[in-house]
Amino acid sequence: MNKFIRGLIWILAIVLVTAATAFALAGIGLIFGNTFELHPINWFVGALVGVVVPLYVRYRQIPLIRGLFWQLIATVIGVLFVSFIRLAMGLKAAGGSYLFTEHAWVFGGFVGTLAFLAAHGVMGDWFKWWRGIDTPDHHEDPAGWTKFLGPSLDHKVIGIQYTVVAILLLVIGGTFALIFRTELSFEGKQFLEAAQYNTLMSLHGMIMIVSILLGISGLMNYLVPLLIGAHDMAFPRLNAFSFWIAVPAAVWLLMSMPLGGVETGWTGYPPLSANPAKIGQQMFFLGVIVAGWSSILGALNLLVTVFRMRAKGMTAFRLPIFVWASIATSLIALTATQLIGLSFQMVMFQRLFGMGFFDPDKGGNPVLFQHLFWFYSHPAVYVFILPGLGVVSELLPPLIRKPLFGYKWIAMSSLGIALVGFLVWAHHMFTSGMNEYLRVPFMYSTLLVAVPTGVKFFSWVATIWKGKIPTPMPSAFLFTVGAIIVFLMGGLTGPPNATVSTDLHLHDTYWIVGHFHDTLFGGFVFPFFAALYYWFPKATGRRMNETLGKWHFWLMTPSFFVLSLGMMRIGLLGMRRRIFDYDKALGFQTWHIVLTVAAFLIALSVLIFIINLIKSVKNGEPAEGNIWNSRSPEWQVASPMPAHNYDTPFEVVGEPYDYGLPGSKYVEFMKK
Amino acid sequence: MRHYITVGILVIVAAFGTYFGLDALELMPEAASAQAGPIDWLWNYQVIAISFLFALIVVPLVYSLIVFRRKKGDTSDAEHIEGNTNLEIGWTIAPLFIVMVFAYMGSYSLSEVRRADPQAMIVKVHARQFSWTFEYPEQGGFMSNELHLPVDRQVLLQMDSTDVIHSFWIPEFRVKQDVVPGRVTELRITPTLINLPSQPYKVRCAELCGSAHYSMESKVFVSDESTFQQWAAEQLAAYAAAQTPEAKGELLAKNNGCFGCHSPVGAALVGPTWKGLFGSQVQLSNGTTVTADEAFILDSILNPQATIVAGFEGASAMPAYAFTEEELSYIVAYIMSLK
Asked: Among A647, A671, B297, B307, which one is most buried in terms of CB atoms within 10 A?
């Protein structure tokens, strides 16, 4: 009974705070000289406050809750600060469906981001050092799962934090896809408005991209220090900072929805994105810029870790292959991410301060944006896929008990892809109206990507050839093989987009949508699942359920083939990308129904995976010791790993993948 | 050795099977322009390469998964093969060679697609959210919201946009070109097939341009030269025949794409409908209500952002149009006539 009354009080508190905030916001409108109006945004912000404030009252000792609370408060303060300055200057300060002006919201967003980081405590040690107070190198993490909500400095905890948030965003972005996919099933308008469709479609793209960036960071954070024998990342505080800054970024991306939405696709091309009607566009830019910081800082940290903290004897060509892939990915992320931040920031300033970078009426050039944008956003796809391809190369040898065929060639092909990836950006712009002759060198450089990618495929096939294929196949192996085939489909459908003349037909169609879903599923989603099935026992000391794993694989893979091949099929026949409805005359409705069913089956398979994950954390079959009979150092010690990794350092005494060579060893642990 | 021969045969069978299967699916829509020729030619070689490389990777992979399965009770490792430098060099050089061949074919195909006829007929294309208008300077300068083209004659499209980036694409013609505000982009098309008036092709905007991007389509009719000339003459005659201000206004509204956002029959599209607008009480987004008189309608065309009708705040901005005073009076007269 007591519990019931307490629950009732909490619900009452939430409702009261929500309503009070909504009315207070309308009241603030009066101060700014508006009529008293209750817009949907009043109720939305009210609900945010209504949920966060009682949570704060009850759970303020949890850093995540503290951070979110102060992010909210500081955002409101920042918004009001700018609004009062505007009021004093005699400018329009408030009113309309978004309550305040764009300037106020953007400033509030920046202040809120900083407030999250300060209140959360992830910068605590830096503040102390600033004031001349010394802090210990390591902090004890609280026992139990609450450490995942706080600023832990342990790379394994941070790796898991990244991975969990990545899966969470995968679910959110996937749900958006299911919603607009359902809308598309039938000709004509169903239940969405065109603007809502565009917003869901745009955010599906960007949220999935952020999810992938966090997912690869999760894998690299957890694995790289273990694989090279380091006790942690080179800069543990920066590492925690890189993760936690992604949380406010995700909040801003989602906040773009109640503030008018994003109608531009994830690419945000001006002049469309410079249309001042939608403040959501600015929240979208803000979210991406903040997430970009996370990516740049994480890459820097990883490179320093690999360069400075390898175990004795771990020379360049004795590095685990996943580490090579991480290096290649981090080199791109460290040097190219600035460009997407820059291009979005320029549109932001065009909107806020009237700087006409991309406005032809002011002498600006809209095509310039596309060059800046794609200079990051093409290499970015290699950021997404290289770690996944590294996972494939890393998992094949122990699972089929055979050395990695052509180790050096695979390692170098990652760097080759990263290098060539910087020289191909304008292949996204063959129809853009850029200089016509420039299209030709970009066609050549783009075709060249096929060479290092081919080396990987041939080497994988040669690795599997005459290997000992495990029976029954573990889920980790199924997803590895699935990754190869799906990524092959993505790779093979690439060259028609590289040759200019065929791309004139293919550009901006569903063919492209099918093509890049193939590359991202093959290059990230499948390897990500393979890695989770493979290293889950390392992280938790328990196995995942194999039966559910097989359901996951055999449901997802055929559905995905139907989805991506179907998209390509109707794309060739005239289905444009990013459209809310399609011409009846094209007769695509049956295809769209099939695609929607396939999408729901994929979602079902991921649901099975998540159930498996949650169940196995608690009740999974215990997995002690070297369950894969791997040569890699992390499997030579207990699972889960001790707090600072290896109790005794190891020395590298052989090749990493010499399976089948009797008496050989990769690592030898030193005597205490 | 037995494995290599089996796999070799299977690769060839699978490659041919994949290619003929894909070919039988008729992947591309009808080819209706001279530019589609070199594009479909190159596409066919791309499909051949895709089929062969797909078979080359997937066949040995799947073969291994079936044939090299671990026997029951076998706990040994596989044979210790670290690599083969000659093979690696081979499968670096061979794709490099294929890539160079495709680079050559791609350049050749592109040069064929861009082949220019100095006698090409010029059509001006005006794009805006969310409609296309086609202007025929060589046929007397009339405007149309449908694209009519004579067969077997190259047309040079000179395209501009008043607001955001759009992209001109007719799938049957294959080629695509973005339309960028602040400049004129060009595209050359030579239609080669006459289509039935009941089954027109469509220009489909391929670059996301806002809420109603999906509906930014216009019909395309390809006819023989004399039918085309006849149609052009009819258009000019329609201009001449439109005597009343209302009729002139309707023609202007139709040809300038106004109906892309404003319905004359009562449906709310991206913008408010015109039906019954004149004389009605209009609620504005700033909370006030005004009577839609002549001055209000005129002001809404000239300064579309000054007053926004309630419920349309989130809609993409209406562009400002360069109408003459005379044309404006016709359009206003037409809107006033829509009771």
From this structure: B297
Q: Is residue A634 part of a domain?
A: no
Strand, helix or coil at A574? coil
pTM of the model: 0.93
Task: State how far the Cα of A183 lies from the Cα of A187, in Å rounded to an integer.
Answer: 9
Helices A246-255 & A155-184, crossing angle to 10 degrees?
20
In a domain? residue B21: yes
What confidence tens digit (pLDDT) does each residue in A106-119 have?
Answer: 999 999 999 999 99
- A181 and A98 fall within a common domain: no
Which domain range does residue B263 map to?
245-337
Greatest Cα-to-Cα distance within chain B, rounded to the nearest angstrom:
95
pLDDT at A362 over 70: yes
Does the residue A641 lie in any domain? no
The answer to whether A294 and A242 are in contact (CB under 8 A) is yes
CA distances in angstroms from A639 to A6, A143, A626, A668, listed in the order given: 41, 17, 9, 18
Q: Does A139 fall in a domain?
A: no
Phi first, then psi, for residue A658 (nearest 5°) are -80, 55
- Taking a C-beta distance cutoff of 8 angstroms, is the pair B201, B172 a contact? yes
Taking the Cβ of residue B9 and every Cβ of chain A, the question of whether any pair is shorter than 8 Å is answered with no
Lowest mean pLDDT: which of A566-570, B56-60, B78-82, B227-231?
B78-82
Residue B290 in tokens: 């005004």
Tell me the residue range of the domain where A40 lies.
Answer: 2-130
Question: What is the largest distance, in Å, between two alpha-carbon atoms of chain A?
Answer: 83
Residues of A in contact with B322 (CB under 8 A): none
Q: Give the integer Cα–Cα distance in Å for A503 and A429.
A: 10
User: Distance from A76 to chain B by nearest Cα, in Å?
Assistant: 23
Structural element, H or E, at residue B158: strand B155-161
> Does one domain contain both B129 and B194?
yes
A179 and A66 in a common domain: no
Chain A residues near residue B176 by CB distance under 8 angstroms: 431, 504-505, 507-508
Q: Which residue bears the tokens 């350092």? A: A649
Contact A447/B164, CB-based, under 8 Å?
no
- Amino acid in the structure at residue B184: V
Alpha carbon distance A634, A347 (integer Å)? 46
Q: Is B164–A400 a contact, with Cβ atoms under 8 angstroms apart?
A: no
Backbone φ and ψ for B264, nearest 5 degrees, come out as: -85, -5
How far are the Cα atoms of A161, A223, A229, A245, B60 from residue A216, in angstroms, in the given order?
Answer: 12, 10, 20, 16, 30
Q: Is residue B277 part of a domain?
A: yes
CATH of residue A547 = 1.20.210.10
A210 in any annotated domain: yes
Judge if A63 and A178 occupy the same domain: no
Which residues are bridge partners to B211 per DSSP? none
Judging contacts by C-beta atoms under 8 Å, the chain B residues touching residue A432 are 178, 180
Is the same domain home to B125 and B192?
Answer: yes
Q: What is the pLDDT of residue B245?
A: 84
Tell me how crowded residue A353 is: count the other CB atoms within 10 A of its CB. Answer: 9
Predicted confidence (pLDDT) per residue in A475-534, tens digit:
999 999 999 999 999 999 999 999 999 999 999 999 999 999 999 999 999 999 999 999
Does residue A247 contact residue A210 with C-beta atoms inside 8 Å?
no
Q: Mark B164-190 as b/e (b = at least 16 C-beta within 10 Å).
A: bbbbbbbbbbbbbbbbbbbeebebbbb
Is some CB atom of chain A closer than 8 A to the CB atom of B268?
Answer: no
Structure tokens at A34: 């508006």
8 A C-beta contact, residue B46 and residue A495 = yes
Give the C-alpha separation, A397 to A630, whole Å: 9
What ipTM describes this predicted complex?
Answer: 0.92
Q: Would you state the structure tokens that stand for residue A171, as one six-digit string?
A: 């679910």
Contact A578, B167 (CB under 8 A): no
Neighbouring C-beta atoms of residue A105, cutoff 10 Å:
25
Task: Tell me whether residues B106 and A580 touch, CB distance under 8 A.
Answer: no
